[in-house]
Amino acid sequence: MEVPGLAHNITSPLSPCEGMIKDLSLDAIQLRDGNKSQDGSISEMEELPVPQNIKISNITCDSFKICWDMEARTKERITHYFIDLNKKENKNSNKFKHKDVPTKLVAKAVPLPMTVRGHWFLSPRTEYTVAVQTASKQADGDYTVSEWSEIVEFCTADYSLVHLNQLLEKAEVIAGRMLPFSVFYRNQNKEYFDHARDVLDNRMLPSVKDNSGSHGSPISGKLEGIFFSCNTEFNTGKPPQDSPYGRLRFEVRADALFNPDTNLYFGDFYCMYTAYHYVILVLAPKGSTGDDFCKQRLPALDITNNRFLTCKQDEGAGLVFHHAQDVILEVIFTDPVNLASGSVAEISGHQLMSQSTVNAKKDPSCKACNISVGR
């Protein structure tokens, strides 16, 4: 059963997270200690049990189940549970949603475990603290409450396949028509390519993806790969001559990375407070470590028939490739790439640093690329 009530103006004077709660009042509800009356005198009512041994389970990106132990003899007196939920402060917290906003949940005393669900106060991949009180509603509308339980910490999960398929559907809406392309390319500085030649046996090696894009993306900080681009200019059919990542560009024939022996996955859809939208795709050689990772976490795409990136056999022309025109594709290839498979040359345009997506945060207010879970 889901928690039915959410009250941002309800607090207990005994809240264990009192230091984090700001500008909250008791106007909506009056609380009493279980063993004291409002005037400070000792009440004859037996003290309510404090929840013990709190357990958090079935954690998703926007829900969790909670249960605890209580003394059986006083259960019948409990009418409500108060759940004090707060985002744990740390330097890596999601700064774009619900900053410094504590949440007080008021639930009827339903059988445990109880499901707490709500994308408006739970973000994916975020650490929270939770504590619980038991409460008994009195005839006059006031509540008698127990002491607060111990504080328990937990972390919400990544987006599931259900959530990623919702993002996928949104991305398909704005992908636009398909344009032909023939090469994948990767821009970096001279030091990067020198290191690949001199230290890495002439190879570019996969590295862990940064935290750009959706906060709940299951590939951020986990999937290892090499970023490539494939977008072309509609008037020339060639890659643009500007790049935010470096003046040297490695180009490789598209069929070297993308062919019938490659699986294609949808990874993310986001924007950065601009009109441009980005789609992250993953190319993983079949049976590779990257392929195994993606099979469990990402929606698979048909390489011959999808709205973003296709590879088709054309009689007489071999493999032909197309990319979506109206989104910027960021393609992650999950295996090492030998520099000998392509060529490195300097671009003639500019290095536009302002267009970099390194660790870029997603705009949580964009209706085109957000879904109804934590951003």
TrEMBL record:
One of its GO terms (cellular component) is cytoplasm. InterPro entries: FN3_dom, FN3_sf, Ig-like_fold, PHYHIP/PHYHIPL, PHYIP/PHIPL_C. Residues 50-159 form the Fibronectin type-III domain. Signal peptide: none annotated. Pfam families: fn3, PHYHIP_C. May play a role in the development of the central system. Belongs to the PHYHIP family. This is Phytanoyl-CoA 2-hydroxylase interacting protein-like a. It comes from Oryzias latipes. The gene is PHYHIPL.
